[in-house]
Write a structure and sequence with these properties.
Elements: H1 12-15, H2 18-26, E1 34-44, E2 47-54, E3 62-69, E4 78-86, H3 99-102, E5 123-125, H4 126-129, H5 137-149, E6 155-157, H6 159-171, H7 179-182, E7 194-196, E8 205-208, E9 219-221, E10 254-256, E11 259-261
Antiparallel strand pairs: 1-2, 2-3, 3-4, 5-6, 7-8, 8-9, 10-11
């Protein structure tokens, strides 16, 4: 059965109770903050909301809303609520962003704590996946032992969290599109300083162990690269004697075999 919703018809007596709505509004705020009547909207059966312009200098574009209701077979309007609501083009505060989401990783200092929610999609309970990256019977047996003795991590990386990290790393400075990688003579996948990862990310990433590389100690994509690749060779130039002009030393003794000649005096 399909239910078709219909806009409720405004109650005539409540829609006409503009003065009652304004009186209720003036009981809560000053008269100089209330402007003209903007209209009435039916909220339900025998429920109508009257809107008045807000003339307060701090609430440009806002409007007062006074909701009236009446009981069946009664003509007297009852005030349900009086609120100040934003209208079209009203100046609003920016959406609230939790502190942990506003904090950039570069802002983190020793002693700072960034908590994670229980519903964080990047993490799942450890018993769902386990810490083992093995496949087959051995992984299942290990997982059962870990659960039985209560070891292992409480939460581990979820598939969504792993994919988000891989996408972030691949698109970042350690991926193939950075300026360093584009100008590199070869890729990290062929570099002797690359330390391979284990698990599902081993086919895309590794860790750099080259102290001469700006990526030292960081996770890099296999198609990343830098100028410190292990296969880069520099040919040593041939050493050639450089001719020099003779120097006449008139301050020290000159030796000619067993005879010593004193410097010429001036």
């Amino acid at each position: 059965m399909t239910t078709i919703s219909q806009t409720p018809k405004p109650d005539d007596s409540l829609a006409a109770a503009v003065d009652a709505a304004r009186t209720a509004l003036l009981d809560l705020t000053r008269a100089d903050t209330v402007g003209e009547h903007l209209g009435a909207v039916a909220e339900g059966q025998r429920v109508v909301t009257h809107y008045f312009a807000a003339t307060h200098s701090g609430y440009v574009g806002w409007r007062w809303a006074v909701t009236l209701a009446r009981a069946p077979r009664q003509r007297t309007a009852t005030v349900d609520e009086v609120v100040l609501l934003p209208g079209d083009g009203a100046l609003l505060a920016p959406p609230w962003v939790p502190w942990k989401d506003r904090l950039d990783k570069s802002d983190l200092k020793p002693g700072d704590i960034v908590p994670t929610d229980d519903s964080d999609p990047r993490l799942v309970p450890g018993y769902l996946i386990g810490d083992a990256a093995l496949e087959g019977t051995s992984a299942r047996e290990l997982r059962e032992v870990v659960i039985e003795v209560g070891l292992g991590r409480e939460r581990v990386l979820s598939v969504d969290g792993r994919d988000a990290a891989a996408d972030r790393w691949y698109r970042g400075d350690s991926g193939p599109t950075s300026a360093m990688a584009v100008a590199a003579p070869a890729h990290c996948g062929t570099c002797g300083f690359l330390v391979r990862l284990s698990g599902p990310l081993k086919g895309m990433f590794g860790a750099c162990s080259n102290a001469s590389s700006p990526s030292d100690g960081q996770v890099v994509s296999l198609d990343h690269g830098c100028g410190a690749h292990s296969d880069v060779r520099v040919e040593q130039p041939m050493l050639q004697a450089t001719p020099t002009s003779p120097v006449f030393d008139t301050l020290t003794w000159d030796s000619f075999g067993d005879a010593d000649v004193e410097p010429l005096s001036r």
